[in-house]
Amino acid sequence: MKPKSALAITAVTLAGVVGYLVAASGADESSVPVYVTQIPPGYRDWKVVSVAHEEGNLHSFAIVLGNDVAIKAYREGKLPFPDGSIIAALHYAHVPSDENNKVFGDKQSFVPGPATNVQFEVKDSKKYASTGGWGFGHFNANGKPADAALLKTCFPCHEPAKASDLIYTHYTP
Amino acid sequence: MKPKSALAITAVTLAGVVGYLVAASGADESSVPVYVTQIPPGYRDWKVVSVAHEEGNLHSFAIVLGNDVAIKAYREGKLPFPDGSIIAALHYAHVPSDENNKVFGDKQSFVPGPATNVQFEVKDSKKYASTGGWGFGHFNANGKPADAALLKTCFPCHEPAKASDLIYTHYTP
């Protein structure tokens, strides 16, 4: 029994040391932002966090979805969001619906037009340490990721929302 | 074996006859609309069909969700929707977000305010034969169903959308 047990402890210790070294090496690069470069699979099936409508220069609808980890944290009011949380914002043009307006008899109805982009926030407190633990991603409607110039603007804009772990969207019951 | 098997056939036949009688009796009442009187459980976890924004007298956000049967039909472009499809429209006030406007530096952002009602369309071509196979339900924010006077207005308003099986909301990819 004894040698086996000692081996197990050594393996655990080694894993711990390796983990520490990886983390320490990551710490050296903590000032360089890391962005989300892959679209998380299956996001269109996630549950709804909320929706939004932006005017100004945007004229945009947002459908905000969360993976199960994010939805659970939202529903339990758990802050900060745990690692593994992913929040997706699907953006579309905000366009009038002629079909609905005909039924209402008034120009009052707006629906999502063409998709414009999908944005993601992925929580990984180590990987994305330099941007508050969140990795930011922006993919145009053609699936191409935005360039670094645009991605650099995400974190500064989310930073004021420190009290809600950099997240602006509230859960809509 | 034989008596058992005969019994089984009799039971099945009887069930068939009873089912036929029930359906026939239902047919007599087919001009009396039947409404949805129970909120379908778990609807808040369903996948998103789309969203909408109504102005006019409504100033309303809609989040439209579908159960798995409805979402599958939407994604496959299958019409009419099969029995078992349920579509939910969650309505909220369309209100400005002071929090978001502060970040944008402009009055441009709108989010869901208090919930106003949830509406359901339940497909059951027999039960709801008198209203195009769809049962209509409307529940106020307090969970109370609307009265018959309001529910009577659902079907006539959906009837012009015959080409899309009485459904106005299109699936947003």
Question: How do the helices and strands follow one another from N- to C-terminus of chain A?
Answer: HEEHEHEEHH
Strand content of chain A: 25-35%
Indicate the percent of residues in helices of chain A.
25-40%
Q: For the CA atoms, what is the radius of gyration of chain A?
A: 21 Å
Enumerate the strands of the largest sheet of chain A in spatial order, edge to edge or round the barrel.
1-2-3-4-5
Shape of chain A: globular
Largest sheet of chain A: 5 strands, antiparallel
Number of helices of chain A: 5
Structural class by sheet pairing and helices of chain A: alpha+beta
Q: Which two chains form the greatest contact, residue counts included?
A: A-B, 37 and 38 residues
- Distance N terminus to C terminus of chain A? 55 Å
Oligomer, anyone?
Answer: homodimer
Structural commentary:
Two copies of one chain form a homodimer. The first copy, chain A, is α+β, with helices and mostly antiparallel strands. Chain A is 30% helix and 28% strand. Chain A has five helices and five strands. Chain A has helices at residues 2-28, 68-76, 98-104, 148-151, 154-158; strands at residues 47-54, 60-66, 86-96, 109-123, 134-140. Chain A has a five-stranded antiparallel β-sheet. In chain A, β1 (47-54) and β2 form a beta hairpin. The longest helix of chain A is centred in the N-terminal third of the chain and has 27 residues, at 2-28. The relative contact order of chain A is 0.16. Residues 1-29 of chain A have low confidence and may be disordered. At the A-B interface, β1, β2, α3 and β4 of A face β1, β2, β3, α3 and β4 of B. β1 of chain A pairs antiparallel with β4 (109-123) of chain B, so a sheet runs across the interface.
